[in-house]
Amino acid sequence: MVSWSEGSHSSSSDSDISSPAPPSILCVEWTGLATDLSARCEHQAICEKYVAFQSVDSGRRFLGCAQKEGPKCGYVEWVDSEWPPQLKTTLGRLWDMYEDENKTRLSDNLANAEGIFKVLKEKEKMEKDLRFFKLDFAKTVADKEQALAQLGNTQIALSDLKEELEKKKISDKSVTNIHQVFRAKAEKELELIKQELELMNQERGKTMKERDEVMQEMDKVMQERDELKKEKKKLEYMIGDLFKHKEERKSKIRKVREILDEFE
What we know:
This protein is mostly helical. It is built from 2 helices and 3 strands. The radius of gyration is 45 Å and the shape is rod-shaped.
């Protein structure tokens, strides 16, 4: 921790009472109310001790408004004089490096967020397509079941017709002409039914082919889903790297503080 002699104050030329208070950092050696000093802020109250943490003034002690509730006044009185030019140059470069790193990090985060948004959009589209394929497949299955039901009804009707012809044949053998007429009619209807069955079989084959195509599309969707999972893993690794960069930035800040300690 940086330490200063509390008895050393800046000259009146170093005091800037009208400028806004700069950002500060906690320092256990210089904190609390300055009850041992005569400085008073615009509220005519005892000032509070601060340590600046901004640009080339980093590490300089100053007195500022101690108001906790309500707006603070702009009273600032520097206790330490300005740093030597070499130290100010070093601090300026360090803060520039810090700001550049923050800009780079924000740019990377924005690019990663855009990538994640794009992946989520693609995932949403694929899920929508998958729901469409499922509905279409369910409709195809329903149509197939309806066709099979119609085929069963046709077979039952054919069986009833044959049974009826057999009964008429047994009950009235003398009516040959009528029997021939019914037989011809039955054969004609049977031929029509066969043709309908062939058409239904063709439709059934087409339905099975369409179902196979739907299953292939579903397999493709599942493969794309697995690829999305892999992309999600990559994004998780990238987020881990971002947290790692955050730790490296903290390490750089600690090095800055060590450099400040060396100038004391």
